[in-house]
Amino acid sequence: MGPKEAAEVLRKSFESEVREISEFNAGQVSVTVAKEKIREIMRFLHDAPELQFHFLSDICGADYMGKKEPRYEVVYNIFSMPNKAYLTIKAQVPEDDLAIDSVMDIWVGADWRERECYDMYGIKFSGHSDLRRLLMPDDWDGFPLRKDYPLQADLGDREWKGYIDVIETYKRNKVYEVHSR
Amino acid sequence: MTLQQFVNRVFLIDIIKGMALTLKMMFRHAVTRQYPDEVRDPIPSFRGRHAFVRDQKTGKEKCIMCMKCSQICPSQCIHIEKGKREDGKMYLAKFEIESLRCIFCGYCVEVCPVCALDLTEEHRYSSYTREECLFTRERLLSNWDSLAAKWKEDTYFNKFWRPDGIDSSKMPKAKRELAPIPLRVAAAPPAEIATAKPAAEAKPEETAQPAPPAEKPAAEEKGKETAQ
Amino acid sequence: MDTNIIYNGFYKLIGITGEPGVLAMTVAILIGIVVVLAVVLLHVAYATYFERKVIGHMQLRLGPMRVGPHGLLQPIADGLKLFFKEDIFPATDFKTVFRLAPIYTLFAALSSLAAIPFVSTFYIANINVGILYIFAISAVSTYGIIMAGWASKSKYAFLGGLRSAAQLISYEVAMGLSLVGVMIMAGSLNFIEIVEAQQTHWYGMYLIPQFLGFFVFAIAAFAETNRVPFDLPEAESELVAGYFAEYSGMRFSLFFLGEYVAMIVMSSMSVLCFFGGWTLPPFLTNAIPALNMIPGIFIFIGKVYFHIFVFYWIRATLPRYRYDYLMRLGWKVLIPLALVNIVITSVIKYLA
Amino acid sequence: MIVEKELSTKYLTVSMGPQHPATHGVLRLVLELDGETVVKCTPDIGYLHRGMEKLGENKTYPVDMTLTSRLDYCSAVANEIGFCIAAEKLLGVEVPERAKFIRTMTSEMVRIASHIIWIAAHAIDIGAMTVFLYSMRDREMILDLFEMLCGARLLHIYPRIGGVRCDVDQKFLDQLWDFTEKFPKLIEEYETLIDQNRIWWQRTKNIGIVSAEDAIALGLTGPTLRGSGVPYDIRKVAPYDAYDKVEFDVPLGKNCDVYDRYRCRMEEFRQSNRIIRQCIEKLPGGLVLNPDAPGLDMMPGPLKKAAPAPAPAADGTAAPAPKVEAGPAFTEIYSATEVPKGELGYYMVSDGTGRPYRMRVRTPSFVHISALQRLCVGVLVADVIALIGTIDIVLGECDR
User: So where are chain A's domains?
Assistant: First the structure.
């Protein structure tokens, strides 16, 4: 069973949830779903005997600021070993309700990938056991992968405290620096 | 447990085998190179220190200020400034490569339509100051001269100027027809170039048609001799 | 007095005939200590060089090459560097303990040297319970390690100290038991007498009848000196550097010296108890009488260096044990083996 | 009356890393120890976070490729190939056959190089120091080969969207062939030292057992998953490049422990060797770069589809490219490749410009380290080291 058929099976079972099925470049099938029943959808994909999407490749977020509505998407890339098929599930998350159910009870390994998604986009995963920042420092301000987060900015006093500390330490210790020629 | 496994276990056969190997290796030749004394020959097309190819006709760089290298550079370490002469022609006012930021991807070499840039095989150029790692135009040209002095063969051709196996019909003409650059025949010996360099530095954009490099140092040396 | 050449030579030098007085004896012993320490510490310095060269060549490297021809002056350069390095203290409440720990370890290792006869006429003290003395002293050296681990106020050092204590206690037992066979055969605890007893057999070394004891002793010696594969207290990849993680400069080098001296002591013990000390086996000397011309001290040093080479050789070959397997090996394999050895030896001795 | 009081004990919290010889870079594990037994292990990452995904969104595709080689710097070319495959799928670029074989060959070469790093680090963590130096000696040969091939030893930047950067020459192929002849004997040297060694067995057998179900749920991939007996190898299940044209076996483990994962990787050395030999034998002729592929000087603006950027018209040979409208607003692709450490997936969204709209990298090390907190419970400190070694992590890849 290819990814296209799997997507159709999913559409049959979750008629009201599946918004769109798109295919691109032979084999890349994306299913856009509403976020409300994401855990049920994932449970179905994982457990249905003809689908068996046992392997969670990846969870990531995407930000379509000003390009699409709703603004955020949480993207699940899953793989079915018996069918040898990848499937991309995209759950739409609107900006005013930045939360989605965690799939940690289906895949334990979703843990850090959901944390990273929270870290980078600020999307909250309800039901996650330990939702903290992962890559960024705990006291970081802002969510870096959002499109309105600048790549480079001079923040002046609003700079992250850790960076200010580094700069101040450097200035303080400059007297000890051995100058080269 | 088979008998063999039992024997192996009791008589430490596994450990003895390992010890036999290490003892055998003790009498092999070491693979270490005594680095500063024993330097490995660079493999051609290694991506090392940057250089400007010195054009044999003009004795200067070939750069046509198309800005492609500075646009493609992933670490944005190439800074080019154009200047305008009185007659309206553009000239290369500044060309700097911050070699400390460079990631040596070689994109600039490959993208250059006139093959003016080169990542030479030289890989030993550490220095004590950051200033020495900022390659200005003069520095880049002298890098080329030092490569030319060291290079064992008579001609030099960087693989990335025109990579093999790639359809070259769409490449610019200068790139397509580039032949290996002779280093010994036409180019002046490096010692003379070294003396020629200060003159070039002093007035880089002075003449529209600079004298061939081979003549200039010769004239200078004559002048020196007569002064003495 | 006995036949010690240091003292005898000294007495001759200052013209004493007959029994020397207390002062002359003290001075003579001090001279003996100085000679032994100087020689041993020089050997330790070059043992580090030897180790780096041997392991280097086994690993297809060259080892030290830059200081002097083939790096021969490397140990001296290392020593100078360590000597002039800043002595850094961690923020610990036990500065005195921290300072004392390396001295304690080195002191314990060096004092074991006192009981070792290098040849029948060259030793500092001829103790009639030499083996027991060395056991006692080498057990003391673990205090230094525990002190270092505790006073460093570092968790890695602390774990290293704990491991060291457990390891030493377990393996001291196995080591003691492994030598009982030798004691039974020789009927003595004095090293000189043990060596002389070995000469009475045609094979000339207890290695052959006491191979089981030697096996246990060898493994226990590796564990006692914290060498690979039992270098758990200082396991680099687990505990960074173990008990001396916080030490630097001279104090670090004292630990280092202590470890190497302990290695030399253990090698010497093995040479004395199992390899016939400064003698060659009678069957060899009978076959080639010219071998009798070799001075005993060279034979002894040669055998010790062979042992040290094996220490390095093992280090280049084997991975590291895990803590619980180490304990299991000590208690479940080595001690029973040593006991079996004792029983067999006693039965044979009784029947013979 | 004697009142028995329970001795109050508390767990010892040890911060292992980010500066620690065995944590392979800047991984920090906060271990809570009960004696030497680990009660809780909390990995802490992010020390090498370089914002690669954010940077990738702001640079053009060819430039993004130079970022991907910094992901797993031990196997740079494999990451780049993964990126190029994703970008090719996204931009609709075909790859010439010869380039496919060269890519397969180089990614197997780099698999050997990466596994050598792994065996070296794993062995030295467990204490077998000599394996480290023997394997580094052999890695040197691979690095020399890479230097011959593309002028760089570590960060190759060799593939290109639509092919590879330059062709291989006969001298390189001869030397590579010599290497493949020699290499199986060299693997035996490592195996002599550790394979049957009782201490190695004790340190690796029955340690870190992950059942197949757990491994899949945790998202483990690559040899770490195959050690648990799951035949999931993207080279087999979704072949890319020339993997469907070469023969190789996928080694699987049985006991799901550290030793089986070690055996899997050792077997992969031999399989990679085999693939390289087949690639050299079957290498077809032709170009190595699709002439219609987007060039290096891709502009960040809207793409003109299926047309290379026009060359500077110095000579007039470059035909003016027909202007094609950009495709649908957003196209996306999830493309997975099998890099030495596991599944490297690129989820890329294109909005029809020269920059990816979203570039997400699913790196194996990230997932593997997240599994560490579940693997490292109830084991000894020494086993934590063995477990870090067995999952084969590179922190550049984890933190991105």
Answer: 3-134
Same structural domain for residues C66 and C120? Answer: no
Spatial contact of D128 and C318, defined as CB atoms under 8 Å apart: yes
DSSP per position, C264-325: HHHHHHHHHHHS-TT---HHHHHH-GGGGGS-HHHHHHHHHHHHHHHHHHHHHH--PPPHHH
Rounded to the nearest 5°, which phi and psi values hold at C307? -60, -45
> 3-state SS string over B147-175?
HHHHCCCCEECCCCCCCCCCCCCCCCHHH
How far apart are alpha carbons A74 and A94 in whole angstroms? 11
What are the φ/ψ torsions at residue D344 (nearest 5 degrees)? -105, 115
Distance CA D217, CA D212 (A): 9
Predicted complex ipTM exceeds 0.85: no
Asked if C touches B (at least 3 Cβ pairs < 8 angstroms), the answer reads: yes
Is B171 an interface residue toward D (CB < 8 Å)? yes
- Range(s) of the domain holding residue C58: 1-84
Helix (H) or strand (E) holding D44: strand D37-44
**Three-class secondary structure assignment of B27-96:** CCCCCCCCCCCCCCCCCCCCCCCEEECECCCCCCECCCCCCHHHHHCCCCCEEEEEEECCCCCEEEEEEE
Instruction: Name the residue among C61, C240, C322 with its Cβ closest to that of D382.
Output: C322
A145 touches chain D (CB under 8 A): yes
Total of domains in chain C: 2
Query: Is the CB of C332 inside 8 Å of chain D's CB atoms?
Result: no
The total number of structural domains in chain D stands at: 1
Q: Indicate the SS3 state at residue B18.
A: helix
C297 with C277, same domain?
A: yes
Contact yes or no for D312 and B66 at CB 8 A: yes
- Chain C positions touching D12 (Cβ under 8 A) are 155, 159
Architecture of domain A3-134 in this structure:
2-Layer Sandwich (3.30)
Residue D147's domain comprises: 47-308+340-399
Angle between helix D258-282 and D170-194 (nearest 10): 160
Q: Which domain holds residue B106?
A: 50-203
The CATH number linked to B69 is 3.30.70
Hey, is D298 helix, strand or coil?
coil
Closest-approach residue (CA) in chain D for C62: D133
Residue B36 lies in a domain: no
CA distance D356 to D200: 47
Tens of pLDDT along C237-284? Answer: 677 777 888 888 888 888 888 888 888 888 888 888 888 878 888 787
pLDDT averages per 10-residue partition of chain C, 352 residues = 65 71 78 83 87 88 85 87 84 81 86 83 79 85 84 84 83 87 85 84 80 88 83 73 81 85 88 84 80 82 89 86 84 89 88 82
Set of chain B residues whose Cβ sits within 8 Å of the Cβ of D308: 170
Tracing tokens 């330097």 back to the chain, one arrives at B39
In 3-state terms, chain B is what percent helix, strand and coil (to 5)? Answer: 35, 15, 50
**Are D98 and B165 inside 8 Å of each other by CB?**
yes
User: For residue D355, is it within any domain?
Assistant: yes
Asked if D37 and C322 touch (Cβ cutoff 8 Å), the reply is: no
Across B10-14, B209-213, D279-283, which has the greatest mean pLDDT? D279-283
Classify residue B10: in a domain, yes or no: no
| All partners of chain D with 3 or more CB pairs under 8 angstroms | A, B, C
D-interface mutation test, from C318, C325, C332, most D Cβ less than 10 A away? C318
- pLDDT per residue as tens digits for the range D111-121: 999 999 899 88
Q: Which residues contact A11 (CB under 8 A, 6 or more apart)?
A: A18, A21, A31
- Report yes or no on B217 lying in a domain: no
Number of domains in chain B: 1
On chain A, the residues whose CB falls within 8 A of the CB of D237 are: 81, 84
> Does some domain include residue B209?
no
